[in-house]
Design a protein that fits this description.
It contains eight helices and six strands, in the order H-E-E-H-H-E-H-H-E-H-H-E-E-H. By secondary structure, it is mainly alpha-helical. The strands form three sheets. Strands 1-2 form a two-stranded antiparallel sheet. Strands 3-4 form a two-stranded parallel sheet. A two-stranded antiparallel sheet has the order 5-6. Strand 1 and strand 2 form a beta hairpin. Helix 4 runs antiparallel to helix 5 and helix 4 runs parallel beside helix 6. The protein is globular.
């Protein structure tokens, strides 16, 4: 069954984090699943991301004409990026091996392409022509290593997705307040309600 690429699936804030989040529930091996297990979803994701990440991409469209061909390369970038950035978000630093793996995968993502990628402040280059998804993914991932961005990458307290906290005081706790934030609020309300019932003698087994 095809994935419906809704706005919620693009709450990472940038292309590289949205892509990292295509693995759902990484923190729960019994329930985790990969939305890119079917290579065809890479093409559908790229099409949706062209719209949802238009500002980041400078209006440049993403191209993934042969998702099966780039499947392994995309997954390598995704996993190395998640590993390095998640470690930094969790511990405030990243192992050198994780950084090396991320850099190597991004180099591989750019290796087969020849683009001008920093024209007049446009990191993704000429908006009039498409850019290969794996190349754009590499550029997006590398941009997150800038100190002012790296320190704002967080792990959602509900679903475990990575997101770039763009709030003024860097106080966001959830990737999506309307989804994860509300779910956490509902859980807290339920627990408080159950606790009150227990105190009143109405919440027994």
């Amino acid at each position: 069954m095809s994935v419906i690429w809704t706005p919620h699936r693009f709450t990472g804030g940038v292309l590289a984090l949205d892509t990292a989040n295509t693995v759902v529930l990484r923190h729960d091996a019994s329930r985790s699943f990969d939305r890119f297990e079917d290579p065809a979803e890479i093409g559908r994701f790229a099409e949706a991301a062209s719209s949802f990440r238009s500002a980041e991409l400078g209006g440049r469209r993403l191209a993934a004409p042969n998702p099966t061909l780039v499947h392994g390369k995309v997954l390598a970038i995704r996993e190395a990026t998640d590993g390095a950035l998640r470690a930094n978000a969790d511990a405030g630093s990243m192992p050198s091996g994780a950084l090396q793996a991320m850099l190597a995968s991004c180099v591989d993502g750019l290796d087969a392409h020849r683009y001008e990628l920093s024209l007049s402040g446009r990191p993704f280059g000429d908006p009039s022509t498409p850019i290969a998804f794996e190349a754009a993914l590499s550029v997006s991932a590398l941009s997150l290593l800038a100190p002012e961005r790296l320190g704002r990458i967080k792990i959602c307290g509900n679903c475990g997705w990575l997101f770039l906290d763009s709030s003024r005081n860097s106080s966001r706790l959830w990737c999506d307040m309307a989804v994860c934030g509300n779910r956490q609020k509902a859980r807290r309300h339920y627990k408080r309600h159950r606790g009150l019932q227990g105190e009143d003698g109405h919440g027994g087994a």
